[in-house]
Amino acid sequence: MSGTNSTDPRITAAIEAGRIPKEISIAWLEESRDKPATGAIIFVTLLTGLVVLFRIASRAFVLRRTGLDDWLALLGLVSASYHPRFGQQDPDPLPFTQALLIAFVVLDIQSIDVGSGRHYDYIIYVLTPEEVNHSEIVDFAAHIVYTVALLVCRVSGLTFYHRICSIHRGFRLAIRILMGVLVAGFLPQLFLIIFHCAPVTGLWPYTQTNNWQEGVEDYQCLPWGLVYSVNSAVSLFCDFLLFGIPLAMIRMLDLPRKRRLQLACILLPGIL
Predict the structure, then answer these.
(1) Worst-scoring range by mean pLDDT, 17-21, 67-71, 96-100, 257-261?
(2) CA atoms of 206 and 189, how far apart (whole Å)
(3) Peptide bond into 205 cis (omega under 30)
């Protein structure tokens, strides 16, 4: 280990405890992008909040009409709720999505503070076993929240398309079928995260790579890469299906090319 002084108290404690091998430099362990990552997360969260505020302002001062959905959308930035949208009784998942966003951001920042975003050597040699376990549990919770948030976002988009296609029976049926497909894809994603180990745990002690972690012999776990790959493939498939709804809607309309392009600019960004 080159160098013996560090500005990071965790690294200093690890050096004093003799946990860091000689071939690992302190400069390597001190490399961190925690602050830029945290700043980017906070920026995106604030940007989302501004979008909700601008939505309310535009309806209040341009359309001169606000509804319960607008104010509950604002409330949804800090709490979960459902509300009737546009005078209908269908629940709108938007506020719940905002609540999930806040929960996910809090878990992300907490995970970064624990040290999950640092080099793998930092996690192995610097963090204590208790800190490693805590970081994995936070990451476990964050993935559950993220998976649920993806489903709610997609359902929110389908709810919007279902409303504007109220007079077209074919589209309404297709949207309902797609809703079932999204839920069917969501369940294995969620179950893979929750039941990635036997017995069930919030830790990720995959024994073939985490043989340095205490207690790994107590669990039989799926590879973390396998869980990621399957969930990402299912998520991509659902996104492609969802993307087809506005494309089909635009294609069936008898409009000039310019108007179709304008409509695409309105509908398609919502898929992203």
Answers:
(1) 67-71
(2) 18
(3) no
Q: Global pTM? A: 0.76
- Which of 127, 141, 106, 136 lies closest to 8, judged by CA? 127
Question: Could you tell me the CA-to-CA distances from 18 to 11, 21, 118 in Å, in that order?
Answer: 10, 8, 20
SS3 of residue 78 by DSSP: coil
Rounded alpha-carbon distances, angstroms, from residue 124 to 30, 138, 210, 224: 14, 17, 9, 17
CA–CA distance, 175 with 96 (Å, rounded to integer): 21
State pLDDT tens for residues 113-153.
988 889 989 988 999 888 988 999 999 999 998 898 888 77
Q: Which helix (H) or strand (E) holds 197?
A: strand 197-198
